[in-house]
Amino acid sequence: LAERTNLAGVQHILLVLSGKGGVGKSTLSTELALALRNAGKRVGILDVDLCGPSIPRMLRAQDSAVHQCDSGWVPVLVGQDRAIALMSIGFLLERTDDAVVWRGPKKNALIKQFVTDVAWGDLDFLIVDTPPGTSDEHISTVEALRPHRLLGAVLVTTPQ
Amino acid sequence: AEAAELRARLRAVRHTVLVLSGKGGVGKSTFSALLAHGLAADENKQVALLDIDICGPSIPKIMGLEGEQVHQSGSGWSPVYVEENLGVMSVGFLLSSPDDAVIWRGPKKNGLIKQFLRDVDWGEVDYLIVDTPPGTSDEHLSIVQYLSATHIDGAIIVTTPQEVSLQDVRKEINFCRKVKLPIIGVVENMSGFVCPKCKNESQIFPPTTGGAEKMCQNLNVSLLGKVPLDPQIGKSCDSGQSFLAEAPESPATLSYRNIIQRIQEYCEQQHLEEEKIM
């Protein structure tokens, strides 16, 4: 029931994917969120890149901390008007240089929590930024999001 | 017993280096391939290149070996040879089509990595280069764990100049320290671009926080070198040719060669020191 509550208010969920690293997924996720916000939409970003979370720095939120409320974790409000809701593992690290050296099962557990335990509220768009590859993070994210309004995936590449 | 098996298989490997980055797309595979070509230029050296990027194996294409298959013999899996003294292994050779996605969770990836180390008949090897995927996860933990059966000379960490990359690379450096993996040094790729027409230099990925140089100073690791952007690098990778051979006059080639030499010196030096101790 908590699952339904936390994502029930989200109208569209968009995944940003690539097989390849370093092509601009996080950059695109950030720009997409900012552009949608500019167009008056309510936007959230879920950063499931556990090993290399780039979104907090891109939105100048690298020093933010997360808090809990009754329905779960409260996303950090970022952007110029603090109106974009962001959740990233980056916020849970004690120091930004700490490596998250986890094997698949532990990553999967955290992703599930991110999807079900973040109090997103009412959003028009939730953008999910992913790490490169087709492994644990991707499988777990898609599995956890499938019961919800998963709009689709945007694939990012470079020309070569 | 497993550890003994691995130890036996890797006994004939003199030097092992890992090519790492926290960040994707910075040029690990490109560098691994050029390091392999560079070291194999000496016909008397036997070089092995192991690609443990299971989801995005770039090495087959970069080495011009797409479409090759792995053969089995009595002594194990045979690496695919680019030259007589340069053998390659990658999951890419096990796929029926290069577009096949390998959608595996951690444990299955670990299993294949162990197989690569245990079942591939590398023979006598002077340099084993291991190309890794981005991140600090299963593949990285497993390779360090399995290679503890032999000796790892160290890790080469690849980055690009911008803070978004360095941020992830600092984590990788911390990973190396956590698992007691010596760091040979850092390579900064895509470090400036010199226009072939007007010869002006531009910073395509500006080092807004001081680039790899500052990071290396702060973290007390060696900066092996900076490699400028050269569009020929990407082209050579796409066509499976050695950039060093195709563009011998490029400033990037000069940088790569210097870096490769420093790595060689590091490995040889280690060897000498060990022999002294023994």
From TrEMBL, chain A:
GO terms classed as biological process: iron-sulfur cluster assembly
GO CC entries: cytosol
One example GO MF annotation: metal ion binding
InterPro entries listed in its UniProt record: Mrp-like_CS, Mrp/NBP35_ATP-bd, P-loop_NTPase, YlxH/NBP35
Transferase among keywords: no
Keyword vocabulary terms for this entry: 4Fe-4S, ATP-binding, Iron, Iron-sulfur, Metal-binding, Nucleotide-binding
Lineage top rank: taxon: Eukaryota
Gene3D superfamilies linked: P-loop containing nucleotide triphosphate hydrolases (3.40.50.300)
A Pfam family it matches: ParA
Protein's UniProt keywords contain Iron: yes
Protein name per Swiss-Prot or TrEMBL: NUBP2 factor
Organism: Cisticola juncidis
UniProtKB/TrEMBL annotation, chain B:
Full protein name: NUBP1 factor
Keywords recorded for this protein, A-Z: 4Fe-4S, ATP-binding, Cytoplasm, Iron, Iron-sulfur, Metal-binding, Nucleotide-binding
Transmembrane segments: none
Purpose: Component of the cytosolic iron-sulfur (Fe/S) protein assembly (CIA) machinery. Required for maturation of extramitochondrial Fe-S proteins. The NUBP1-NUBP2 heterotetramer forms a Fe-S scaffold complex, mediating the de novo assembly of an Fe-S cluster and its transfer to target apoproteins. Implicated in the regulation of centrosome duplication. Negatively regulates cilium formation and structure.
Cross-referenced PANTHER family: CYTOSOLIC FE-S CLUSTER ASSEMBLY FACTOR NUBP1 (PTHR23264:SF35), NUCLEOTIDE-BINDING PROTEIN NBP35 YEAST -RELATED (PTHR23264)
Originating organism: Cisticola juncidis
GO molecular function per UniProt: 4 iron, 4 sulfur cluster binding; ATP binding; ATP-dependent FeS chaperone activity; metal ion binding
Record-level GO cellular component terms: cytosol; nucleus
The keyword Chloroplast is annotated on this UniProt entry: no
Boundaries of every AAA+ ATPase domain copy: 14-185
Subcellular location: Cytoplasm; Nucleus
A GO biological-process term: iron-sulfur cluster assembly
HAMAP family in the record: Mrp_NBP35
